[in-house]
Amino acid sequence: MSCQPANFIAGYVVEPGAGSQHGATCTGEPANGLCLGSRSSSTPGAAPAQPLPPFPFGWFAVAASADVRPGQVITRRLAGRDVVLTRLRSGRLAVSEAACPHLGAHLGQGGTVTAGGNLLRCPFHGFEFDLTDGRCAATPRPYGPPPRTARLAMLHAREVLGTILVHGPDRGEPQWEVEEVSTDPDEHWIRLRHNVIRFHGGHPQEVSENSVDLGHLSILHQFAAVTVRRPLETDGPYLRSAYSARLARVPVIGHLNVDFDVYVDGLGFSRVETRLPDLDRFLGTGWALRQLVMPAPTDDGTLELRLAVSVRRPDRRPSWLWTAIAYLIRAAVMVRFRGEVNSDLKIWRHKAYLDRPTLAVGDGPIGPYRRWAAQFYPENAPASAD
Ligand code: FES
Ligand SMILES: [Fe+2]
């Protein structure tokens, strides 16, 4: 198949006169078969809004690890239904569907961890479930032996950087994992602080697209001198890139040069590792920031956006002083982080998703990002075990 005309970039219509960018120019049949460019390039301007499927596949944050203490049972919402998070007394976390397989009671509404600490007890008739595989392990009198077919539906869950991630939208076997990150205490990272924003009108793909939409950084967020340090690379569900920018009007310091390394693992978990050379000038070397952006679809069109911030302090004495400064920096970064996200939020809540946007030079690699994102929708995913 021959290449599309010059105004066609990676499946998107580009304003006449705009050149190619970030290697996104269509040079023939796309290798991954996901090219969105099978349409005619003669379509003028942007295509009408076309909603994205509401629940992409991947790992989505539902709580901070500290939200579920040993012996505690809590309910969260993900992909249109309630999920129940149980922390056994051993510290192990398990996540299940809410409905008890006996007669459907909601296990997050009165379910308890048994005195032995290893089973989840339903409040309605007292059946007890083993959370390693969901089987009914015990029934109270007057019931007979546990029915062999009574099996609680378990979901795949992980704890990463103090955050509980659940694989969704269904109970199918995960095909990939969120990348491991060192939590070595010798590296002097302070605990991640979480902050949650719930809003209607958001979608994980639109939130994660922010990390490649370089043009909006200077217009909406007033970052200056945005430059790409590492062009976008993708490897299966992982997307990586790096850029630098300058923040103006920073109290005390004046302006701040920042180097961002962006790690996007699916559409629900983005990690930004930030270095601040100007902060090093004031406080010495060894500082680093880590920000997590974790959009999770709770219901169709409703998003729970979980932000988290951590700071790494230098390995210096007295450690209490540097730890205290790290906590102050974390608080200041969270205020700024929330402010930036609130600017995005005003856009996300009202914007349309354009299947064929009118891209321009300066946009950043939005075309390659969208081709990468297409793998997370059920029609492109491996068959589920459900
Ligand atoms: S509904 Fe749960 S034990 Fe009956
Ligand atoms: Fe943004």
| Main structural class | alpha+beta
Overall number of domains: 2
Morphology:
globular
Bound molecules: FE2/S2 (inorganic) cluster, fe (ii) ion
* Unreliably modeled segments: 1-46, 381-386
Q: How many helical elements?
A: 5
Helix content: 10-25%
The end-to-end span amounts to: 38 Å
Task: Give me the count of strands.
Answer: 21
Order of helices and strands: EEEEEEEEEEEEEEHHEEEEHEEHEH
CATH topology group of the largest domain: Naphthalene 1,2-dioxygenase Alpha Subunit, Chain A, domain 1
Instruction: Report the portion of residues in β strands.
Output: 25-35%
Strand order of the largest sheet: 14-20-19-18-17-16-15
The major β-sheet equals: 7 strands, antiparallel
Mean pLDDT: 84
CATH classification, class level of the largest domain: Alpha Beta
Written overview of the protein:
Helices cover 15% and strands 34% of the residues. The chain is an alpha+beta fold and 386 residues long. It has 2 domains: 109 residues, Rieske Iron-sulfur Protein; 171 residues, Naphthalene 1,2-dioxygenase Alpha Subunit, Chain A, domain 1, CATH 3.90.380.10. The strands form 5 sheets. It has a 7-stranded antiparallel β-sheet, with helices on both faces. β19 and β20 form a beta hairpin. The radius of gyration is 23 Å and the shape is globular. The N terminus and C terminus are likely disordered. The protein binds FE2/S2 (inorganic) cluster and fe (ii) ion. The site of fe (ii) ion (FE2) has 5 residues, from loops.
